[in-house]
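Record type: monomer structure entry
Structure origin: computed from sequence
Chain ID: A
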Amino acid sequence: MARAFSRASSQSITAASSTALELGTGPFSVAATIYPYTVDYTATSSGVVFSKGIDPSNYFDLEVYQSKVRAGVGTALMDSPVIPVNAVYRVMVTRSGTALSLYVNGALVASSTSSASVSNPTKNVTIGVRPGTSYFFNGEISEVAMWSAALGGDEMIAYMKTYSAAVLRPQALVFYAPLVRDVVELKRGLALTNNGTTVVPHQRIRF
């Protein structure tokens, strides 16, 4: 199962605030499984999968933009090659030191650097939109996770073989919302507010 997000209906999920999600300038990883219905967002829009913060100096975004997976940390941006619609993608962003890496289905597709602080207590984690914008995702999202560590190597291989992201580096896991049926966060029990998303059968994963 997964959660379906409708861009036309402005659907999203918002997490309660937590100091554990204020990762500052330290290492981190963010992952999600997505099945986009739309990828050709315009130059003035995007379909945001996961967002923390909003100010360019201290935000993180994972999104679909102009037919690519894009990740932004501060002012640093990384884009994947063009992706087709109606396919499953396991996406992950990591930061080790200032080195950023974007992975799609286990393959490193882009890299950059950023020392920006991923910390803004007034802007909670959101799934399916960037706070204060109309950048809503159109498609399915599940297995959303955040770690206070940079995953890599064998863990990236394991990520492609496991159904649950929670089995990877559990001691560093700070946020985990499987979204396979209920809208719940399982690591810290953070309250999640469901803004209209619905449960749908999970697409078959083939890599």
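Annotation 1: Helices lie at 154-161.
Annotation 2: The mean pLDDT is 91.
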